[in-house]
Known about the structure:
Layout: H1 16-34, E1 47-52, H2 58-69, E2 73-78, H3 90-99, E3 104-109, H4 114-119, E4 125-131, H5 137-151, E5 158-162, H6 169-180, E6 184-188, E7 204-206, H7 209-213, E8 218-221, H8 237-244, H9 248-251, E9 259-261, H10 274-277, H11 284-302, H12 310-314
Parallel strand pairs: 1-2, 1-3, 3-4, 5-6, 5-8, 6-7, 8-9
Helix pairs in contact: 1-5, 1-11, 2-11, 5-6, 5-11
The chain binds phosphoric acid mono(formamide)ester (CP).
Residues 56-60, 130, 139, 263-265 line the site of phosphoric acid mono(formamide)ester.
Amino acid sequence: xxxxxxxxxxxxxxxxxxxxxxxxxxxxxxxxxxxxxxxxxxxxxxxxxxxxxxxxxxxxxxxxxxxxxxxxxxxxxxxxxxxxxxxxxxxxxxxxxxxxxxxxxxxxxxxxxxxxxxxxxxxxxxxxxxxxxxxxxxxxxxxxxxxxxxxxxxxxxxxxxxxxxxxxxxxxxxxxxxxxxxxxxxxxxxxxxxxxxxxxxxxxxxxxxxxxxxxxxxxxxxxxxxxxxxxxxxxxxxxxxxxxxxxxxxxxxxxxxxxxxxxxxxxxxxxxxxxxxxxxxxxxxxxxxxxxxxxxxxxxxxxxxxxxxxxxxxxxxxxx
Length: 320
Ligand code: CP
């Protein structure tokens, strides 16, 4: 297994071996997440700062819990509560956090490239918690982890990503990871949100949902990211749902064992019927649980811990 990186910024720059390494560590950490004590203090004495300039429920909370399960001291900072509001620059802000001896900075930012900008200016490890429409690497890892739990391997898996691809960091990170791991990716949505040039990333592009879901092993739904769109990409939400919403009727077109995924937050009744979001085939809450294991693995690795010793070192912390 191989991991020498101080930062986790995107999936594009990772090798297939590094992806397999983080997923293997997440598999080990999932046992800790599910054990009663949820405690494996490999980051005792470390300081982790969760710096979220954009809102978040899942990513922010699971990074905080992951760091606490690993025994780290954790501080949460939001844009509203920080001196960014008083005009301090991002560079000055993160250099001050570094001066507080932060070992890891987790950054979510509306600007694509912000975590890379920070990583080049601090000695602390930087983990990208989602930047603009660029990358959300830990989301791609938790999605992949969930798919592997369900199917055993990503090799040869058919994955359809349905919805607002253009403005989605989740879509881009998923595409990179799935391609590197041998899955086949289909993208589907209106032409304004799923332009044909995504084919250059090695994906099939279709604008017809019936053509996208029949062969899929996994259908991963994305919400419309109004916060990143300068003008509406389709006439109305009702029209979007009519053409691209995952309804009960459309689920009947899917393979009987196909799995429904969503990174959250869900806009019920828009990209997915509420009943379908909660149905047996939906793994949205498993994805959230797996996010905790993936984020423990990410924190463990970027702080220089060895992936090779993990299974042995975890033994005392897992109650069988
Ligand atoms: N999936 C995801 O990133 O959710 P949050 O925005 O709530 O973190």
